[in-house]
Amino acid sequence: MKALGLALALCGLALPACGQVSGVAAPEFLIDFSHPALSPSHWTLTLHPDGSGHFRSERGSATGQGSQGIDAPNVDRDIEVSAEFAEHVFETARRLKQSRSNCEDYPKVAFQGKKKLRLSGPDGEWGCEFNYSKDKEAQELGDNLTAVAETIVEGARLEVLLQHDRLGLDRQMEYLAASAVDGRAQQMGAIRGILEQLAEDSEVMERVRKRAKLLLGMAGNKDQGPGTEQK
To answer: What pTM value is reported for the model?
Structure first.
């Protein structure tokens, strides 16, 4: 009992320090993208080292995007990417932080969207913004994350089509499958829910179900990293 009392007393004395440790923010990565001519015109993607995250988008004034001319609804949901992808994102951001990269822009590249990157955590913060970066790693990181956002937005379009235009799913799934092959869309696991729904729905076209299963196969590859899905 005396030992227990001593331990509790020591714990009590240590509470301020323990609270300080427990209050340290966990590592977090954020990309904020904006382009007024696109729909969505603004989106943010937050990631944690385990692959969990959150995506939020705003449609803006532009309409008629996507292969079907279907404008995706606003999205505000938790998402999940592979742990390998998340690890690559954080490793790249840490290297950029250590090199003190400011993601300097190429001055004469057409506007592709403003990308703001931010890494925060117990080791401090780093951030930069660019349209098209001279830093190869920063540009590749922006491209990969934009491809994840493309997957999530296309998944939201599929949800709309499933409710209102099942025949339109065929063309949209063809577009998504092609995007997964060439790298425009990455991390199919981020839209696993709608893909599973399509794969199991006997009322949609067989081609739609087959493509959904193919994309789920990509999502099921636990070893996939950035770019793996386009192979």
So the answer is: 0.84
Angle at Cα 92 formed by Cα 120 and Cα 139, nearest 5°?
105
- pLDDT score for 71: 78
Domain count, the chain: 1
Contacts of 77 (CB under 8 A, 6+ apart): 54, 55, 56
Which residues, other chains included, contact 167 with Cβ-Cβ below 8 Å and sequence gap of 6+?
Answer: 205
Rounded Cα gap, residues 172 and 183, in angstroms: 16
The parent domain of residue 195 ranges over: 23-230
pLDDT at 185: 98
Specify the higher pLDDT residue, 14 or 196.
196
**114, 34 Cβ separation under 8 angstroms:** yes
Residue 48 backbone dihedrals phi, psi, to 5 degrees: -115, 160
| Distance set, CA 96 to CA 62, 89, 129, 174, 229 (Å) | 33, 11, 12, 36, 25
Q: Is 117 helix (H, G, I), strand (E, B) or coil?
A: strand
Going by pLDDT thresholds of 50, 70 and 90, the confidence category of residue 70 is confident
Residue 146: name the closest of 72, 35, 70, 4 by CA: 35
Dist. CA 201–CA 115, nearest whole Å: 37
**Window from 89-98, 197-206, 216-225 with minimum mean pLDDT:** 216-225
| pLDDT of res. 61 | 76
Is residue 2 one of the residues assigned to a domain?
no
Q: CB of 131 within 8 A of CB of 115?
A: yes
Q: Is residue 168 part of a domain?
A: yes
pLDDT score recorded for residue 135: 97
Residue 16 within a domain: no
